[in-house]
């Protein structure tokens, strides 16, 4: 059998008043059970959209999706809303950035955790309430039996985030997608939440996708990393490969923005200038070329005209025209960034 989650040649486009936004522009990746994939990029890189497409949460009226998304042998592109609805919650779940939007202020925390358990697992109200208490305990809420009837506003931010994780995991989903799950939290709580996800993964073998702009988050949680830019994957590999020997200039820039990571000393580290490109009108050739300090070094104007790619089946790869020799010159300081 194939990988647990397999995405092949995915394109996601939105029709807007100004034209067509190419949010995801030919993306392929695999994810196995029990592993964590970190998808990293600036906002507007397509990382969230990719996962909304996997979950079938895009708006079909203005969105076109092409390509293949296969979850545990089941094709999701073109699946009916009924099929997707059944899969969401039971087989796949999403943890959002902001617990205030994911949790309703009008219902108790316990009821919101119990609801999907009744709906998807056919549990009785009583059994689902017991399950909610068990889940609150599992995510580290003290005295869960006393807190189960609290409303979200009675919880602290960190507790609400935990409650949201409890809600996402109540049916033991095989795939969990966490979109910037810790950005709104202080550093200590962030670390606790990420540890919690890893613990749950060890217990249940869940496959996890963590979407983040922060390579630091990925360093502590992911097995594999996919770096996205302008709706494409520009580099992928194991977390160790990406952190210790990144090959793409955009990855170098991302690493430069997290001084707390010990980056390889010989990298030409400097933060990325400018802003991400418009996806209405993406740059020709390499989408990073307007911001890349090394585009001139490639020669022949290739960076602006020829789109670099990663062979679909290559586990480790990067989309950049810079040759090995040029890179060596950059690393040894013979070439300075523009
Ligand atoms: Fe920079 Fe050219 Fe490589 Fe793109 S292909 S990252 S512009 S050197
Ligand atoms: Mg996002």
TrEMBL record:
<dbReference type="GO" id="GO:0005886">
    <property type="term" value="C:plasma membrane"/>
</dbReference>
<dbReference type="GO" id="GO:0016887">
    <property type="term" value="F:ATP hydrolysis activity"/>
</dbReference>
<dbReference type="Pfam" id="PF00005">
    <property type="entry name" value="ABC_tran"/>
</dbReference>
<keyword id="KW-1003">Cell membrane</keyword>
<keyword id="KW-0472">Membrane</keyword>
<keyword id="KW-0547">Nucleotide-binding</keyword>
<dbReference type="Pfam" id="PF08352">
    <property type="entry name" value="oligo_HPY"/>
</dbReference>
<dbReference type="InterPro" id="IPR050388">
    <property type="entry name" value="ABC_Ni/Peptide_Import"/>
</dbReference>
<dbReference type="InterPro" id="IPR027417">
    <property type="entry name" value="P-loop_NTPase"/>
</dbReference>
<keyword id="KW-0813">Transport</keyword>
<dbReference type="GO" id="GO:0005524">
    <property type="term" value="F:ATP binding"/>
</dbReference>
<dbReference type="InterPro" id="IPR017871">
    <property type="entry name" value="ABC_transporter-like_CS"/>
</dbReference>
<feature type="domain" description="ABC transporter">
    <location>
        <begin position="5"/>
        <end position="255"/>
    </location>
</feature>
<comment type="similarity">
    <text>Belongs to the ABC transporter superfamily.</text>
</comment>
<protein>
    <submittedName>
        <fullName>Peptide/nickel transport system ATP-binding protein</fullName>
    </submittedName>
</protein>
<dbReference type="InterPro" id="IPR003593">
    <property type="entry name" value="AAA+_ATPase"/>
</dbReference>
<dbReference type="InterPro" id="IPR003439">
    <property type="entry name" value="ABC_transporter-like_ATP-bd"/>
</dbReference>
<dbReference type="GO" id="GO:0015833">
    <property type="term" value="P:peptide transport"/>
</dbReference>
<keyword id="KW-0067">ATP-binding</keyword>
<dbReference type="InterPro" id="IPR013563">
    <property type="entry name" value="Oligopep_ABC_C"/>
</dbReference>
